Amino acid sequence: MAAAVPMAIGMGSMSYMQARSQNRAIGKSMRSARTGALVRLDSLMDQRDVTEDQLTDQAEVDQWKVYQQSLQVGGTARANAAARGTTTSMEGSGKRVLTQSFIDRFINAGLINRSMINTITRLNSDYMAGAIETQSSYNAQIASLQSQMTNPFMAGVMGGISGYSTGLNIQTQQAQLDAIA
Asked: Using the 8-state DSSP alphabet, how is residue 150 labeled?
């Protein structure tokens, strides 16, 4: 019995300290996983925002081009009318050209806007998919890490029981050796 109690105390203390150390390491890993998930989400959001800004800028440039083309068609039609000696009030084919140019301008502008809206919608959908994937991965990491955590008190008790048992075995072996000698 003399060896069993010190062994129980030693093994129990060592098991307790190991469990605490392991739990601290797991806690650090959990914080690291959280930081990684937040960085990934920030990166996804930044990427989405930059791409959205680029799309908006490109749509504005395209709108400007459509407007300039419309002005160019109108100017050409007026110049042709003036060259024929007709008034610039535009009658006949010149008026039809201007009207079609005006209609084309608004149709093209609508198409540009619709394309931009569709692309931004896809970007937002991709962002959400990435965010959900990041969240799922983070949750899986946390669940895995939490499953590795141990209760230090229980680890100490189990270590103490194991140490006590080992101490009794040593004592029994010593007693048998003493009986033989």
From this structure: -
Q: Is the pLDDT of residue 47 over 90?
A: yes
Residue whose token pair is 């800004």: 53
Amino acid at 175: A
CA-based max dimension of the chain? 137
The answer to whether the predicted template modeling score (pTM) of the entire model surpasses 0.85 is: no
Say whether pLDDT at 88 is over 60: no
Q: In one letter, which amino acid is 34?
A: R
Residue 133's pLDDT is what? 96
The three-state (H, E, C) secondary structure of 46-101, written as one string: HHHHHHHHHHHHHHHHHHHHHHHHHHHHHHHHHHHHHHCCCCCCCCCHHHHHHHHH
